[in-house]
Each structure stands twice: as C-alpha cells, then as structure tokens.
Amino acid sequence: MALDAGLVGRSYPPSAVYEVGREKIAEFATALGDPDPVYRDPAAARAAGHPDVIAPPTFAIVLSLGAGNVVVEDPEVGIDYSRVVHGEQRFTHHRPVRAGDRLVATATIDAVRSVAGNDMLTTRVDLATEDGEPVCTTRSMLVARGTA
Amino acid sequence: MTLRLADVEVGTELPEQVSRVTRADLVRYAGASGDLNVIHWNERVAREVGLPGVIAHGMLTAGIAVRAVTRWVGDPGAVVDYQVRFSRPVVVPDDDTGAELTVRGRVAQVGEDGRVRVDLTVTSGGEKVLSLARAVVALG
C-alpha cells in the first residue's frame, strides 16, 4: 500500500537526552578506521579550535537511527520494515557534535513518494542541545521495495 | 594543518584513498553505531532476502568515504554538509581480505562564502557504490 501523503509534516515528541561521551566518539572513529587525533585527544581538538573532542561527520547517525525508529514503528505510517533499504542519507552540521553535548532528537516526516512500485519515506531528525542550540539536521530516505 | 580557501579551485583533485572492509570491520561498526541489522553479519539471512551475501552498512561506506575529505582538509569540523545515495551494496566476503573501497574526490564548486563542494566517486571492485556523494566544507 502506498504511503499516505497526509503524513508529511508529522512530527514526533523529542527523544530523551543523549549525552555524547569521549569514549563513544573514539569507538565510532575506530570503527571507521579513522586515526585522526581530533576524535580522541582533547588537546589536539583544542589545537584545532574545538572545546573538546569532536565526532566524525557521520556520528549523528547513532542518534538519528534511534529517533527515526519512532517513524518506522508508527502504525499509521505502516511501512513494511522487512522490505526497507537505506536509500539516501544527508547530514547538515550547524556545528560539530562534540563530547559533553547533551542532545535531544526530534523526528519529522519530510516527504513520502511512490516511484516504480517502491515507497520512499524521508525522515528529518533535528539534533539540538537540551538548551535548544541547533547542532545537526539529518535526513534519511528509506526505500520499501515493492510496497507501493 | 587546515587547508585554506586560497589552496583550492574547481577541479582540484583529492588524494585517492583505498581501504578494505572485512567482516570484522562490520561487527565493529555494528557495535559502534547500534545498527545491528542481520544482513550485515549473517550470510544465511542476507541471501534469504535476496542479497548476494553479507553487505557493508551503507553508513560505514559513507563514513569511510568522507575520511578522504576530512584528511584532505585537516579538520573534520570543517564538514558542514555531507550527503550520499546508496546505489549498490558492498558485498563483504568471508575472508581476511574483505572488500576494497576506492574513494576519489574533486572540487566541484568554490563559493565566495568559503564553502567548497567536493564530489566523491566511491567504487568497490570497479563498480560505483555511492552516487550523489557530496561534501561541503567551510574553509577560512
């Protein structure tokens, strides 16, 4: 069944606070095979002009995956997750994510489309500090194959 | 050392980056990212859903690809926008060699505001695995 165009603009309640830790950033950088000291060494990060270690440009996926699940699990969206593949991903950084950040993720349905029998669902997740400073906006496009 | 705006122009090529992704890397990335999707570690399930085998997380490929940009710039904090389209899965064989990923980049746009767009070409085994892979960096 094709996704309902009326879902566009639907927003979900903000997530619980996620506290970004130095060890988590280092673990993520190691998983990418990236030895850059700016991800691990606070002194190196400060020398590069950051207040603490920063996260790799794709780190926000850790938060947006979780926040995006509220959309996928919304029965009114009704997407068949067993047929879903990740189609596109975008990160718009207002500033780097860094250790010590206390972030809140808010998910919104940005677009739904049906093309060639596939449903496409674009979810935007806005990451901001608990004080409301915008940090990163992620957009994930999921493709449900053969459901439209 | 951070790259300066004066050092780049449209057409500037980034150093080519070649890396390998093994099954162990997929396990490590699954743990670090929290993406435990079975198709990234279980051959049986991957084949059952019509894949040629265990495939790399798209976001692992994307994360490795953008390293070519952050290394070139010298400060990962300079990346203000990064987008990718996952056009073909990277099949990771069950051996110690894994899959090869080759990343090439070229400056496509230099804005007066110091924003530089780099278009990436990411291939595995000669096939393009990401399309519309673009990073925008803010340079001083």
From TrEMBL, chain A:
TM regions (residue ranges): none
Annotated ranges, domain FAS1-like dehydratase: 8-137
Domain of life: Bacteria
Gene Ontology biological process: fatty acid biosynthetic process
Record Gene3D superfamilies: Hotdog Thioesterase
Gene Ontology MF: a single term: (3R)-hydroxyacyl-[acyl-carrier-protein] dehydratase activity
Alphabetized SUPFAM superfamilies for the sequence: Thioesterase/thiol ester dehydrase-isomerase
Family in the record: Belongs to the UPF0336 family.
Name the UniProt record assigns to this protein: UPF0336 protein DMO24_17165
Organism annotation: Modestobacter versicolor
Automatic annotation (TrEMBL), chain B:
Pfam families membership: MaoC_dehydratas
Domain called MaoC-like: residue spans: 17-122
InterPro entries tied to this protein: HotDog_dom_sf, MaoC-like_dom
Domain of life: Bacteria
Family according to the record: Belongs to the enoyl-CoA hydratase/isomerase family.
Protein name (record): Dehydratase
Native species: Modestobacter versicolor
